[in-house]
Amino acid sequence: MREPILELKNVSAAYGRIKAIKDISLVVYPGEVVSIIGANGAGKSTTLMSISGVLPLTGGEIYYDGARIDGIAADLLPARGLCQVPEGRRIFPRLTVEENLDMGAFFRKDKAGIAHDMNRVFQLFPILLERRRQHGGTLSGGEQQMLAMGRALMSRPRLLLLDEPSLGLAPLIVQQIFRIIREINEADGVTVVLVEQNANLALQASTRGYVLETGNVVMEDEAGALLANPDIRKAYLGE
Amino acid sequence: MEVFLQQLVNGITLGGVYALVALGYTMVYGIIQLINFAHGEIFAAGGYMGVILISWMVAQGYPPFVCLGVALVLAMGYCALLAMAVEKLVYKPLRSSSRLSVLLSALGMSIFLQNGLMLTQGVYDRAYPGEMVQGGFEIGGAVVSYMQVVIVGITVVLLVGLNFLVFKTRIGKAMRATAQDKTMSALVGINSSRIISLTFAIGAALACAAGIMVGMYYGSVRYDMGFVLGVKAFSAAVLGGIGNITGAMLGGLLIGMIEVFAAGYISSEYKDVFAFIILIGVLYFMPTGIMGENVDDTRV
């Protein structure tokens, strides 16, 4: 068996007194695309924020790349290859597109490498090149999602956490975003954890999936098996 | 016309100094939404450190510009460290408390620092060495002293330098990113504590330079000089749109001009009043200031 790149062991986290996730355990292996699906409020974003070190755990352990990372300051993780594109994209609204991308590579000092990666992002998302001197806040939702992903790629991630990349976007843009997710997974070997309300879309792009309900993992399986599961189809795929 | 020109020269000199102090208020507000009441005291501490260093160096016989240059650099470093210490010891532990708690501790810090100055430096005015920069020249009937030229020159260098730092360098980008979204800046690897500390340091260094220049301009410093000037500079920051760097510079210049013209044309007794009238007026009629909300580009 391969070594997992990410492992959550009985992780719990809370906002104040409200328990958001309880005893979540999950494993992600290098090269996988793993989706976490579930209804609104099931704890999907909380899980990602806990992994990223933004939300302190109330219990459990998180291992990344063989080392324990819970309790480590969030700002130290990008340099270790763990990067998140959070819900709502969180573009820096009054930084230009270029500046947003440069902030994605904040911890890096290799100027040539950064310039190379920025060109790569502009190749993946040509619209960003056109808009590079515009403020991030002036972009459309789809462009902001592209910028958020581009910014994450600037850190040369090995594990990319994507929170609701399809939220509020037109179907054509969603297709484009998911094509890019597949590309960075296959061509660059980036492992992806994908949180989505659009379960159909997410599972089709994934190798495996976890189903979250009210803060608990209620099911885990190969993506194809989840897609075929009648309960899942009924609860999350709108049948 | 002569009076007008003269006041214009005086207004630019004073306004630049207000701008330097206003920047510290606006930058700190931009990044942690705190009105740092202790900022005026950092300005006063800078004025004192300046007079101590300059007097000593002048007594050793160093040339005036060497004294001024060295004193500026050392005192700015001292004030930066002082402000970082205040931030770390007093404000940082309250980072997750209510904004009111931090505001009150800033007020307390202001009183503490002012009393500290009084106890260590005494309650009387302390004179700057008079022979620093002498003489001047005349343009169209207005007298421009070399001291004013030096002050405006230093101010311009500092303002241009700050603009470059904030808008052109990577650390400046990180400062603006942190001001806009702390969680996201952590997610890209920015240590927001370090950025906040740096913001305090930069604001304090600018205020310190202002303190030294005010001391040289008026010839002396006093332990409580930070209070009135602090409120005026805060008014300038509000006038420009708090959190907006270009706004603070403009606001400072405007407040300086208004004060000087009011003193020249109305009454010098009332010159301090005008800054406060503006503060009240701006808060009442346009609380976002002249460069607030509508003009987004230069907010931190």
- pLDDT below 50 for ≥5 consecutive residues: which ranges of chain A? none
Oligomer: heterodimer
Number of helical regions of chain A: 9
Total beta strands of chain A: 10
How many domains in all of chain A? 1
Cα-to-Cα separation, first versus last residue of chain B: 39 Å
Query: Could you give the order of the helices and strands of chain B?
Result: HHHHEEEHHHHEHHH
For the largest interface, the chains and their residue counts are: A-B, 28 and 20 residues
Uncertain segments of chain B are none
What is the rounded Rg of chain B? 19 Å
Structure description:
The complex is a heterodimer of chains A (239) and B (300). Chain A is α/β, with parallel strands linked by helices and 239 residues long. In chain A, strand 1 and strand 2 form a beta hairpin. In chain A, 35% of the residues lie in helices and 27% in strands. In chain A, the strands form 2 sheets. In chain A, strands 6-7-8-3-9-10 form a 6-stranded mixed sheet, with helices on both faces. In chain A, strands 2-1-4-5 form a 4-stranded antiparallel sheet, with helices on one face. Chain A has one domain: 3-Layer(aba) Sandwich (Rossmann fold). Chain A is globular. Chain B is mostly helical. Chain B has one domain: ABC transporter involved in vitamin B12 uptake, BtuC (Orthogonal Bundle). Helix content of chain B is 74%, strand content 4%. In chain B, the strands form 2 sheets. Chain B has a two-stranded antiparallel sheet. A two-stranded antiparallel ribbon of chain B has the order 2-3. In chain B, a hairpin with a 2-residue loop joins strand 2 and strand 3. In chain B, helix 1 crosses helix 9, helix 2 crosses helix 9 and helix 9 crosses helix 10. Chain B is globular, with a radius of gyration of 19 Å. The N and C termini of chain B lie far apart (39 Å). At the A-B interface, helix 2 of A face helix 6 and helix 7 of B.
